[in-house]
Every structure is written in C-alpha cells, then in structure tokens.
C-alpha cells in the first residue's frame, strides 16, 4: 500500500490520530539500558511494541540517531516496525531541503536506505527541492508549512502578495506541487488558528501536527481545527511525554499508558 493508504487504514484500525515520535536520548534511558551498544534500538523497539495498536504512525527523528552514530539502529528499528507491526507507517523526520542530485540522494537515504514510508522535507528552496521525493509514488512527502516553534513566525508569517508565506506553501503543496497526491504538511499544534487556515486551503490533505505534550499545544483546539469531515486527516505527534513517561524497567508500560491517555484525549474531540 501507499503511505496515504497505510495511514487511512491505521486511522481506522487503531481508532487513532496519534503519532508517537521516537527521539531517543540515552541520558534519559532507564539504568538497565545505559552503556549497551544497542540501547537506542532496544529502548525504541520496546516503546513501539507497547504502543503500536494505539497509533496511526511512528516518527523517528534522524538527528537523535545520527548524533550517536546509531544509523544502523535506526535501520533496524524501521525494519522492526515493518516486520512486527505491518501497516503502521513510519515517517522519517529529517527535514531535508536541497535541489537536484543532492535531493535525489536524500530521497535514496529516506526511502532506499531506511525504508521509511514518508519523509519530512523543507520546501523553502521551491518545487525542484520537492520533486525528487515525488519520484517514489508509494511514499509520503510531508512539507514544513507552519511549524510549532516560536521562531517560525520570523519567516512563515511574512506577507506575500496578500497572504502569509505559510499559506502560500499550503496552496502550492495542495495544487501545483501535489500532482501525484503524495504530499502532506507539518502544522504545529501551538497555532490552532493556523491549523484551521491550512485545512481550509488544502482540503483533506494529511497534516502532521507536532507540539502537544511537552510543547504545550492544546489537544481540543488542535483536533477541532484540523480534523476532516470524516474525523481523520491528522497525525498528532507526541514524543517526550510518551517516551519518558517512566524512568525504570517498566518504561514501556508507562509509555503505553501515556499513549493510551493521549489517544483517548484526542478521540474525545473528534
């Protein structure tokens, strides 16, 4: 199945709009994992296994692996998700942004090496920085649009011919650039009014929404602003609040409890 088909199936099967972000920080791992060469894989795999029936997607952030020379563990983790939990899409959060042959290599990295189902991409170099990822018709390409960080307003809120820059990105992504139907957008939960604006522009396009949990985004406002007519359309990401809900050997059980509470809180407003 394509990324969009997998995502639609996961929304229904697991009754969930929750995306669990996998941002492993060994300094926060339980004591029994510290010092192990495979600690990052083991930590993340246990979280995945404990929460897979509660989510619509997983989102490993590549920097947390690459900074510790753990790219092989990232490969193993994505393979583990595909093998043990088929049908749950994996979004490689790498925010790549370049043109030409370099962008082609980033696409090979995401889809060839890591076997991700989707990748996050920075679109601010324009259409030709997005096109190499669209050459993989079964994959998702999720463009940064209105990000959850406060500094996002420095550029994304600038006026461009009567509309905000993030609105222009949304419009291009929904129309001219999305000829293959693969594109989604990142819109932060910290800006529910902008989520609603993006939804109005793009119709039923999938939105990846970071910013709830540790970043303080409001779940009710996020869901009401971004849901589609069939009460889907969102991948609402939570990372730290789930990953580090527990600090001892029962960390995976604690993560499951936090994930279930988050999923149910989201569903309350669908």
UniProtKB/TrEMBL annotation:
| Pathway as given in its UniProt record | Pyrimidine metabolism; UMP biosynthesis via de novo pathway; UMP from orotate: step 2/2
Quickly give the catalysed reaction: orotidine 5'-phosphate + H(+) = UMP + CO2
At the top level, the lineage of the source is: Bacteria
**EC number(s) stated in the UniProt entry for this protein:** 4.1.1.23
Arranged from A to Z, the UniProt key words for this protein are: Decarboxylase, Lyase, Pyrimidine biosynthesis
Matches recorded under SMART domains? OMPdecase
| Class of the enzyme per the UniProt entry, highest EC level | lyase
Q: Transmembrane helix: present as a keyword of the record?
A: no
InterPro entries hit by this protein: Aldolase_TIM, OMPdecase_AS, OMPdecase_type-2, OMPdeCOase_dom, RibuloseP-bd_barrel
Q: Which residues form the active site?
A: 95
Gene3D superfamilies in UniProt: Aldolase class I
Give any Pfam family that matches. Answer: OMPdecase
Tell me where in this chain the Orotidine 5'-phosphate decarboxylase domain is found.
17-255
Please name the GO terms that the record assigns under molecular function.
Answer: orotidine-5'-phosphate decarboxylase activity
Q: Which family does it belong to?
A: Belongs to the OMP decarboxylase family. Type 2 subfamily.
- Protein's recorded name: Orotidine 5'-phosphate decarboxylase
Organism annotation: Dechloromonas hankyongensis
Q: Which gene encodes it?
A: pyrF
């Amino acid at each position: 199945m394509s990324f969009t088909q997998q995502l639609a199936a996961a929304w229904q099967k697991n009754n969930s709009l929750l995306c669990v972000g996998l941002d492993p920080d060994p300094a926060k791992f339980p004591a029994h994992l510290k010092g192990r060469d495979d600690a990052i894989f083991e930590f993340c795999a246990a979280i995945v296994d404990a929460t897979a029936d509660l989510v619509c997607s997983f989102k490993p952030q590549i920097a947390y692996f690459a900074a510790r020379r753990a790219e092989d563990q990232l490969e193993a983790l994505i393979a583990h998700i595909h093998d043990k939990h088929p049908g749950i899409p994996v979004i490689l959060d790498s925010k790549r942004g370049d043109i030409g042959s370099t962008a082609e290599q980033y696409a090979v990295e995401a889809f060839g090496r890591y076997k991700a189902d989707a990748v996050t991409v920075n679109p601010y170099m324009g259409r030709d920085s997005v096109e190499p990822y669209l050459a993989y018709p079964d994959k998702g390409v999720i463009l940064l649009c209105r990000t959850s960080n406060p500094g996002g307003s420095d550029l994304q809120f600038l006026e461009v011919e009567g509309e905000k820059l993030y609105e222009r990105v949304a419009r291009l992504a929904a129309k001219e650039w999305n000829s293959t139907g693969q594109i989604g957008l990142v819109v932060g939960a910290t800006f529910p009014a902008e989520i609603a604006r993006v939804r109005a522009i793009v119709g039923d396009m999938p939105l990846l929404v970071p910013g709830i949990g540790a970043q303080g985004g409001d779940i009710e406002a996020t869901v009401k602003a971004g849901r589609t007519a069939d009460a889907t359309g969102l991948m609402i990401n939570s990372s730290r609040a789930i990953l580090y809900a527990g600090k001892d050997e029962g960390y995976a059980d604690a993560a499951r409890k936090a994930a279930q509470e988050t999923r149910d809180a989201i569903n309350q407003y669908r």
